[in-house]
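User: Sequence in, structure out. Go.
Assistant: Echoing your sequence, followed by the structure tokens.
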Amino acid sequence: MATRIRPTPKVARTLAKPDLLDICRLILLSRRIDDREIQLKRQNRIYFQISGAGHEAVLAAASKVFRPAYDFFYTYYRDRALCLGLGMTATEMFFSAVGAADDPNSGGRQMPSHFGHKELNIVSASSPTGTQFLQAVGAAEAWLRYSKVQGMADSVLSPHGDEVVFVSSGDGTTSEGEFWEALSSATNLKLPVVFLIEDNGYAISVPVEVNTPGGSISKLVTGFPGLYIEEVDGCDPIASFETMQRAVDYCRARKGPALVHAHVIRPYSHSLSDDEVLYRPPSERSADAARDPVTRFPRWLVEQGIATEAEIEAIRAQVEEEVQLATETALAAPQPPVDSIYQYVYSPDVDPTSDRFDTEDDPRFTGDPTTMVDLLNVCLKDEMARDPRIIVFGEDVADASRVESLDQVKGKGGVFKVTWGLQRAFGSDRVYNSPLAEANIIGRAIGLATRGLKPVVEIQFFDYIWPAYMQLRNELALMRWRSNNAFSAPVVVRVTYGGYLRGGAVYHSQTGAAVFTGIPGLRVVCPATALDANGLLRTAIRCDDPVLFLEHKHLYRQTYNKAPNPGPNFMIPFGKAKVVREGRDLTVVTYGAVVQRALVAAKEFEAATGRSVEIIDLRSLSPVDWETVYRSVRKTSRVIVAYEDSLSWGYGSEIAARIADEAFEWLDAPIRRVAATDTFVAYAPELEDVILPQVAGLRQAMTELAGW
């Protein structure tokens, strides 16, 4: 078992001798852990090493300013000294290095120095550089929302009212667009985020002047309104403490965000996979060595008469003993059981495929049949009234960002009106517009969800989701698994997709479900009717996993898929397909806008041949209701998989492969796929008709397959 976490240290307002000696201990301990890990890596007893060497002083000082288990921390891989100062133990760090089952960072699932600690509010870090910035902004935004929305704070993690969010990175990471998006939102919303940029002059081998115009990130960001900016020698613990104290005080007083630009050193190579001798001259490395806090700070303490040589040596001995014991404990620790890899891909507590989410057979209909847009809107209103944690944001989703205009305008409410009226009903603190930046939407949503809120966000068009793909793939879907269930981000991402509208062309007609169904940890659903949209969205909101909710633009206002309001508790579980047409001779497996085309084709085919076609609407693309599919194939022995995505490498290819694997003995003919051409969707209607699957093509495939 891990060494028990020490009692939460008190925040220092000034640095007394015990604080200074403890900072010295943290600096020495952090470096000694690095050195021992390097030794273990060379002995092939651990598998990766990246150090925090040279960054220790500013981080040890910062640990005296922030409040562990109170504030929130979004770290990067050089922040070892901070995490030690907040309460993480050397043993826990070595557990991470050896990939032990008791590793509190990830349970052996991530590289060492990817810090995460639930009890200390150190949120699970990842390897992609810069993704942490927007999540930190979202975590800070949680304070803004719960401070203004009655009842929300009851479900928020650590709702103290003056908590601060720490986020750090190296200077190279400030080249990432998400850094600038984060600064924009933090300053716009005046959020309590402290950005610590640990500038060691290099991004692996790339020097700062190549990454940063002018070579100084703090000078570059001076135009951001309300951003507190201070530059400091990050190798000087005293100056670092004073600077960090001013920055944290500014944020804790809710004046806005702060950026501390700390000049540190990197005495070791970027990692053990890098050799800095290849690109750094000896003179530069010698200059760094002269500033090294590991040697300079203990010497300064003695020179100033604050500590004696004996006291420093006692600290060194204590550190050596601690590291030795921690190493021995970690090397003897058991590895995670191999079957544990399947744990925490999804929530272990809330199963959206279960009967708990199945009220489909008991709708409480009221009113006249209405469209998919209307029933999605009704669901959002019902759920927001039920749960004050739910917030809705994205591009154009509000009725009007300028609240004073609301009584003069009808309101936008989304490009397709799905969110129309929500801002008026629930206020501008729960329904609001985001910047035109998709990564901003998803990254902030992750941070909000980590604090306990329930973001239901909108990406306006599937075609423009790609700037958010890093956040979706490497952060949203992975948060629970990589943290070994310490953190989760149950965000609902609504996104419109698809063609058949005429005029959508290349950038408003894409479908690409397979890009997302191939991501473990992400649920993907795609309703074909208004009723299904209502029930599946309610399940998405109430489940505890991230969900990509695909809404086909063509289906929003079709008359053939209308339904009355089924009531505020109507749910359809994920992984439950629907047989929308019974048949004996052939099966069509499909979803989305192709469902109606398959129904028309089946009716025409039966009228012409007397043969009946069974049509299955998957509704849920991940998970899939395989049993309903196999049952139908066993009955009909012939199957068409129809989908709007391109034929090759599309979603239907996996369906066809699984049927071939699991139901081959019942097949009397090859599996046939009907899909879009392996091109993009064109603007001209005549071209779009050829590109996308149509009734005639489906009917032809039915005829050919029946002839086997």
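User: And one key feature?
Assistant: Residues 587 and 632 are 7 Å apart (CA to CA).
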